[in-house]
From TrEMBL:
The name this protein goes by in its record: Cystathionine gamma-synthase family protein
Keywords assigned by UniProt, alphabetized: Pyridoxal phosphate
Cofactor(s) in the UniProt record: pyridoxal 5'-phosphate
Species: Massilia terrae
Gene3D superfamilies, alphabetized: Aspartate Aminotransferase, domain 1 (3.90.1150.10), Type I PLP-dependent aspartate aminotransferase-like (Major domain) (3.40.640.10)
Native organism taxonomy: Bacteria, Pseudomonadati, Pseudomonadota, Betaproteobacteria, Burkholderiales
Length: 417
């Protein structure tokens, strides 16, 4: 398979490994577990080390199985290069380790995955100042910019309250000021949305979630879309300045974040994720349809106080989400009316499982304020719009009628308590 046709999303993912010859005609890139890679000619080893010819040297910086996944993620995001990490947080932590310095300033959406929020608070103690803003309006981002702002960081659809960032206008703003625009695309995945379209320079994907999709492997990725001008980025060390400008950013990330800090994705996990990615589009079609059906049913129910899902007309960024995304995602959250205890409700569900992952094939539910957002305390929760009774639902691929019955029956039961 060596033609240059422009194939669709799933065809590309399925056949990408075979675009380079694979041992024995294998259809999947094999799982290469070797930690190191030997060369018959010691001069060749030296030239691989010096970057004069391609090749693998030691597994912390690169592995053939992981490299095949990196190439696949680049294709999915229409990017120029991808680096995989042991987890999604490894990929986000790499931004800090490899691209920021003491004295730098970051503007971040305040509607964030809890651990990213925690990471930005850690960096504050290490000289990198982070301003949290309501990124649903570009004006708030613009107001927070400073001369030393190096990076603007947003999520596409925020987890768990589903606010949608003003993605395209923030992209325009960053381009105008030459600031690196980083978009965490985990909630939408490259099937629903490509951040390159709105000018992102780097894209984060937690591969653990929908891309891997089956809850069996952790992983993360950082993709360079090729839009950001690394030659103008002040924090590139002199030895990476020698490279072509387009390669400087990712070379520094691979060296400083992967080689020096070691959050390396293992080959077995990369294989699990690559297999999961083959059905990403099929699963997203199903989970998004299920999410819309469930969210609509709950919104129409008088025992439910609020439902947050960009697919509902009542959502403040419904129009924006419809314009930007192929579908509004597999995750929604809702609040029960006062007097109905969310724990009693969750305990009545027979299919949906109380658990903290998302993007799984199975439907998972979690009482947000009491678990993943417990540590940050009531004030920060309130500022992020997290009600104490908020339940997050990561919708799976179960049959729609079964899910509707499960959530409906549990409501009927608890409203009689
Ligand atoms: C889960 C998640 C992450 C982190 O991914 P891990 O693989 O769990 O480290 C980052 N961003 C978002 C939006 C997530 O949902």
């Amino acid at each position: 398979m060596s033609d240059n046709k422009n194939y669709g999303f799933t065809t590309t993912v399925l056949h990408n490994d075979r675009r380079k010859p694979i041992e024995h005609g294998s259809l999947h890139k094999p799982v290469h577990t070797s930690v190191t890679f030997g060369y018959e000619d010691a001069r060749q080893l030296a030239s691989v080390f010096q970057g004069k010819e391609p090749g693998f040297r030691y597994g912390r910086q690169g592995n053939p199985t992981v490299s095949a996944l990196e190439d696949k993620v680049s294709k999915m995001e229409d990017g120029v290069a991808t680096i995989c990490f042991a987890t999604g947080m490894g990929a986000i932590g790499a931004l800090f380790q490899a691209l920021l310095k003491a004295g730098d300033h970051v503007v971040s959406s305040s509607f964030l995955f809890g651990n990213t929020n925690s990471l930005w608070n850690t960096t504050a103690g290490q000289g990198v100042d982070v301003a949290f803003v309501d990124a649903t309006d570009v004006a708030n981002v613009e107001q927070a910019l400073k001369p030393n702002t190096r990076m603007v960081f947003v999520e596409t659809i925020a987890n768990p309250r589903t606010q949608v960032a003003d993605l395209a206008r923030i992209g325009d703003l960053c381009r105008k000021h030459g600031i690196l625009y980083v978009v965490d695309n985990t909630m939408t995945t490259p099937y629903l949305f490509r951040p390159k379209k709105v000018g992102a320079g780097l894209v984060v994907n937690a591969l653990t979630k929908s891309i891997g999709g089956h809850g069996i492997a952790l992983g993360g990725a950082l993709t360079d879309t090729g839009l950001f001008d690394w030659a103008a980025y002040p924090n590139i060390a002199p030895n990476f300045r020698k490279l072509a400008p387009s390669a400087q950013g990712m070379a520094q990330v691979r060296a400083k974040a992967l080689r020096d800090f070691g959050a390396t994705l293992g080959p077995e996990a990369a294989h699990h994720i690559a297999v999961g990615a083959e059905t990403l589009a099929l699963r997203m079609e199903r989970t998004c349809a299920n999410a819309l059906a469930l969210a609509s049913m709950l919104e129409a129910d008088p025992r439910v106080a609020k439902v947050h899902y960009p697919g509902l007309v009542s959502h403040p960024q419904h129009a924006l989400a419809t314009e930007l995304f192929r579908a509004p995602g597999s995750l929604f959250s809702f609040e029960l009316k006062d007097g109905i205890d969310c724990f009693d409700y969750l305990n009545e569900l027979k299919l949906a499982i109380p658990a903290s992952n998302l993007g799984d094939t199975r439907t998972l539910v979690i009482p947000v304020a009491h678990t993943i957002f417990f540590e940050m305390g009531p004030e920060r929760r309130a500022s992020m719009g997290i009600a104490e009774s908020l339940v997050r639902v990561s919708v799976g691929i179960e049959d729609t009628e079964d899910l509707l019955a499960d959530f409906g029956d549990a409501l009927n039961f608890v409203s009689k308590l």
